[in-house]
Amino acid sequence: MPAQHKRLIFCTAGLLSLACALGAAAAVGTQLWVRGTILCSTGALLVNASGPELHKFIGHIHYGLFSGQRVRQCGLGGRAFHFSFFPDLLRIIPASIHVSVILFCTVLIIFALVGAGFFMLNAFGSPYETLQGPVGLYLWSFISCSCGCLIMILFSSEVKIHHLSEKIANFKEGTFTFKSHSEQFANSFWTILVCSLVHFLNALLIRIAGFEFPFSKPKDSGTITGAVDLMY
């Protein structure tokens, strides 16, 4: 492939990695990871609410990795409550999983920036044969893609398996009991998915540029002919 085409491919991959790093950094600081509604089951059972009356007992909740907001509604109007995971909710959430998600987000951002820098260096500089050449480009892309996948797996398990929304909804509630009425992952969660797909795309761009995979090495023809010469 001509050098100009390789330079264009590396520039594209570098800009994509930089955009992923900025997008992941923005996603970490937002409260748009999960949106949902919560049902005040205690109040609904007391008045035997159904149909249109049930909407008076449905509140809203949204949160991210550090903070969020819930609006409890038990038939008397909505009341907003702002919360933060650290240190308020550490006693009720799976703290190890939550901290792991934040840690992998940090690693994703760092290695996306590293990958963007090395892509640009390969485009405009003279790449070395170790971590700056094709082996390094595959490595940075693989680490970033793996971190994005781990973030989605861990966070979705925290929300779905450990019922994170219900735990937050019932935080400091002694009288009423809330249940998750509906919940869906919001923009920041899907941003991490896009980042993972982009880093996978970067690995394909490296291959298109003409670099072989690190583990596919051509056979040394000189060694073979030398062994044949020794036979005669």
UniProtKB/TrEMBL annotation:
<dbReference type="Pfam" id="PF25807">
    <property type="entry name" value="Clarin-2"/>
</dbReference>
<keyword id="KW-0732">Signal</keyword>
<keyword id="KW-0472">Membrane</keyword>
<feature type="transmembrane region" description="Helical">
    <location>
        <begin position="135"/>
        <end position="155"/>
    </location>
</feature>
<feature type="transmembrane region" description="Helical">
    <location>
        <begin position="97"/>
        <end position="123"/>
    </location>
</feature>
<protein>
    <submittedName>
        <fullName>CLRN1 protein</fullName>
    </submittedName>
</protein>
<comment type="similarity">
    <text>Belongs to the clarin family.</text>
</comment>
<keyword id="KW-1133">Transmembrane helix</keyword>
<dbReference type="InterPro" id="IPR026748">
    <property type="entry name" value="Clarin"/>
</dbReference>
<keyword id="KW-0812">Transmembrane</keyword>
<feature type="signal peptide">
    <location>
        <begin position="1"/>
        <end position="26"/>
    </location>
</feature>
<dbReference type="GO" id="GO:0016020">
    <property type="term" value="C:membrane"/>
</dbReference>
<feature type="transmembrane region" description="Helical">
    <location>
        <begin position="189"/>
        <end position="209"/>
    </location>
</feature>
<dbReference type="GO" id="GO:0050957">
    <property type="term" value="P:equilibrioception"/>
</dbReference>
<dbReference type="GO" id="GO:0007605">
    <property type="term" value="P:sensory perception of sound"/>
</dbReference>
